[in-house]
Amino acid sequence: MRKATGNLSSGLIIGAAAVFVTLAVALALSGRAGAATTTDTDAALQQVATVESHDTHVHDFSIAGLWPERALRADPEDQIPVEDLPVIEGVLGYAPNVAPAIDRDYRAHVTYELETTEEVLELADGVEYRFWTFGGSVPGPMIRVREGDYVTFTLQNRPDSMMPHNIDLHAVNGQGGGAEATLISPGQQATFAFTALNPGVYIYHCATAPVGMHIANGMYGLIVVEPKEGFEPVDKEFYVVQGDFYTKGDFGERGLQEFDMMRAVDEDAAYVVFNGRAGSMVGDNALNVKVGETVRMFVGNGGPNLTSSFHIIGEIFDRVWLEGGAMVNRDVQTTTIPAGGAAVVEFTLDAPGTYNMVDHAIFRAFNKGAVGQLVATGDHDHVVFSDRIDLRPYNPGATAAGE
Ligand SMILES: [Cu+2]
Questions:
Q1: Staple partner for 272: which of 69, 94, 370, 375, CB 3.0–4.6 Å?
Q2: In the chain, how many domains are there?
Q3: Which secondary-structure segment (H or E) carries 18?
């Protein structure tokens, strides 16, 4: 069985150490002492920073102290043998649709099958590209499990494929994230299993050499590991993954475009797109919401090269789950999503209109395809946003001459 603290990654330990040092410095500077006792993570951190001197408890800067609600996999349900778990067939979600939210409060043995394909699809209007895919789509379909689930994963490589493929799921604690276990030639399938130890939102991708080429051809998607307590319900959820593409022809050059390895090495993307295609969520394909609805967007970045400056023009993210992890930021304009990373953004559109979501490295949006649209319908609150109130000529030179 897993030990209470046996599965902490070095990154988490380093992160905890950084938090410890930061808090220790803050407390030393303020000359105060106290303890965070709240059960809310954000509140705990804020309380430590502004702690009152009347509390004389010793600080608990351990992981359990900072994340007191996390049982660190010592829950009774985590001790149930795998053979006694109910077996559930996993459901996939094809972008921009999510896989269905987890509606159970118990651990399960979830099975997933995913097929790799190589097929010509549209990269932009009139532009075709031979994509390599998971599940016949770019991004690959969303996988969704619950923290603690035992997942049996089968990867299938179509017999008509030319290339071997595999999968590295960033949600996996184990060598290669499953890459070695799932490496398969055309006409083979391979199965491995893992326990979803860490809740969060994770990229998965093909990790077959040359890895960059497999990713650049579209082999990535998201696996969501919902925390045991689940996500708060929202009105709408969407699934968006950014990726950069490297074609011999420049942006918009029509016809079947070939992959350009040197361009990829130089990180000179011809296309930067959401959900595998310029215009995948524009016009008739825009995402539709109502004013006032709560929206959660799982946003990944397959890369292979470029970091996303993810932004919705005219909207502020109420909450961002930084890097798809446990830390929540609030009131965010633009969030960084690294290649091979993800974030969860939550927001409510407060005024009707068409909102462009972009990579705010803005030439990518206007010249390389990194733009999608949300259309919000509903009532205007003119105090929140007035629209144009006045328009008239402005000519300061004429005014000065007339005086
Ligand atoms: Cu591959």
A1: 370
A2: 2
A3: helix 10-30
Residue pair 169/136 in contact by the 8 Å Cβ criterion: no
Q: Cα(208) to centroid of ligand 1, in Å?
A: 5
Residues 31 and 103 in one domain: no
Ligand 1 mean position, distance from CA 259 (Å): 14
CA of 220 to the centre of ligand 1 (A): 9
Distance 157 CA to ligand 1 centre (A): 9
CA angle 257, 261, 265 (to 5 degrees): 130
Q: Where are the beta strands (DSSP E) in 83-149?
A: 87-89, 109-124, 127-134, 143-146
In this structure, are 157 and 92 located in the same domain? Answer: yes
Based on the domain organization, do 110 and 191 belong to the same domain?
Answer: yes
Q: What is the pLDDT of residues 287-317, one digit of tens each?
A: 999 999 999 999 999 999 999 999 999 999 9
User: Are residues 131 and 24 both part of a single domain?
Assistant: no
pTM of the predicted model, to two decimals?
0.82
Structural domain harbouring 144: 86-226
